[in-house]
Design brief:
The protein has 86 residues and is mostly beta strands. 12% of the residues lie in helices and 44% in strands. A hairpin with a 3-residue loop joins β4 and β5.
Length: 86
């Protein structure tokens, strides 16, 4: 697994993990202020959510939290939040 960043764009390269539905195929990621708030809003609108907010990576100063929804064509759309550690 590797992350590359340049000019505000982040690229993740890694192998899909067996049994993890959200890692199959390609995904588009959007940054949001709060994945918890986004999850609640989307759940109230009956959007097809893949899983509840999940911390997927931990940095020294912050954590990367994500949720995924299923797009209309079966693709995963990710929403991510970089949450500062307390």
């Amino acid at each position: 697994m590797a992350f590359f960043g340049h000019g505000g764009v982040r690229l993740f390269i890694g192998e899909p993990e067996a049994g993890q539905e959200f890692s199959n195929g390609s995904s588009i990621y959007y940054r949001v202020e709060s994945v918890d708030d986004a999850y609640s809003d989307l759940e109230a609108k009956n959007v097809d959510l893949v899983f509840e907010p999940l911390m997927v990576y931990e940095y020294e100063t912050h954590e990367l939290w994500m949720i995924f929804i299923k797009g209309t064509e079966g693709n995963r759309v990710g929403l991510m939040e970089e949450r500062l550690k307390n």
